[in-house]
Specification:
This protein has helices at 135-142, 239-242, 246-254, 295-298; strands spanning 2-4, 8-10, 21-26, 31-34, 40-45, 53-58, 63-67, 71-76, 85-92, 95-103, 119-122, 128-131, 146-154, 158-167, 173-174, 181-182, 186-189, 192-204, 207-220, 226-237, 271-283. By secondary structure, the protein is mainly beta. Strand 1 (2-4) and strand 2 form a beta hairpin.
């Protein structure tokens, strides 16, 4: 306790405490379906200080660590060695965990000059939904579309993508009723790339919504005709569709095995975390995504379907 002239007794400000506890980790110990662009994800609860986090691996590799307020992502700065077992260990405050994984060989260097104006169809209903486990069925029920990813330009070390929503089954086209995503240019460690964070606009049962804080990592095949070994994380904010009644939507979601948690934007417990792995995407011949900034004005117009 301090005595300050004119103020009397003043309690000193408490020093910040690093008290976070690790609640989950992925990949699971010994999992062997990880690409050479593997990433390790940790979940935690509590307060994490800047000096309260460490991560290392054996064999040694350079890792980039990002704190997402409740989640930590560790990504290799360069592709890992293929067909190699890695052991990793992490510490968050006084909480520790470790694990192992073996890299595989999906993804081969492709010719960068061949990639511009190619568009790939990402169907999340055929991927592996880690969180929530029944996400594939819900995605088909609530959304029913596909995500399109187009390459706009490629440099020696940078690649620029544009994202859109697709419609149709046998003949996938760009849906002009959705705004496109102009992703920022990202590092291209041929054949690997990582996108985000970004906002992906969607329509859920007639209401405008979005996938927030979307991050997608993947690799091209040798011919540049497919994306392999991709994974995605994002958040769905039930306030997008429930507005002030979002708690009622969370209660309803719990009946389907979903749990609302803190949103990365403001910490309110109104968001559902999405984590999807084993994503593959095929090229759509002749489809070039066209930018859409005002969907209501451009709905019904031809926006780049296969010719």
């Amino acid at each position: 306790m301090l005595w300050v002239l004119g103020l009397g007794c003043v309690e000193p400000e408490a020093e910040p405490v690093c008290d976070a506890l690790i609640t989950m980790s992925s990949p699971e110990d010994g999992e062997d379906v990880i690409g050479t662009n593997a990433q390790v994800e940790l979940g935690y609860e509590g307060s994490l200080l800047a000096d309260g986090l460490s991560f290392s691996s054996e064999p040694a590799a350079s890792w980039e660590i990002e704190d997402l307020d409740g989640r930590v992502l560790a990504r290799p700065s360069e592709p890992l060695e293929p067909l190699t077992e890695y052991a990793w260990s992490a510490r968050i405050c006084e909480s520790e965990t470790d694990g192992r994984f073996t890299t595989r060989t999906l993804g081969e260097a492709t010719e960068p000059a061949d990639l511009p104006d190619r568009t790939f169809s990402i169907d999340l209903t055929t991927a592996t939904w880690v969180e929530p486990e029944n996400g594939s069925d819900l995605m088909q029920l609530l959304f029913g579309g596909v995500i399109l990813l187009g390459v706009e330009s490629v440099g020696d070390e940078q690649i620029d993508f544009i994202g859109a929503v697709g419609e149709g089954e046998s003949l996938v086209q760009q849906d002009p009723c959705y705004e496109t995503i102009d992703f920022e240019s990202v590092d291209f460690r041929n054949p690997y790339f990582e996108l985000g964070p970004a906002e992906m606009p969607l329509e859920v049962q007639g209401q405008e919504a979005a996938l927030h804080d979307l991050r997608l990592v993947g690799a091209f095949d040798a011919e540049g005709y497919a994306i392999l070994d991709a994974s995605m994380i994002a958040q769905g904010d039930l306030r997008d569709v429930g507005n002030t009644q979002w708690q009622d939507y969370c209660d309803l979601a719990s009946q389907y095995g979903l749990e609302c948690g803190p949103c990365t934007s403001d910490g309110r417990p109104a968001c559902i975390d999405l984590r999807i792995e084993d994503i593959e995407a095929e090229i759509i011949g002749g489809l070039v995504i066209k930018p859409v900034s005002e969907p209501s004005a451009e709905c019904g117009q031809d926006t780049g379907g296969p010719k």
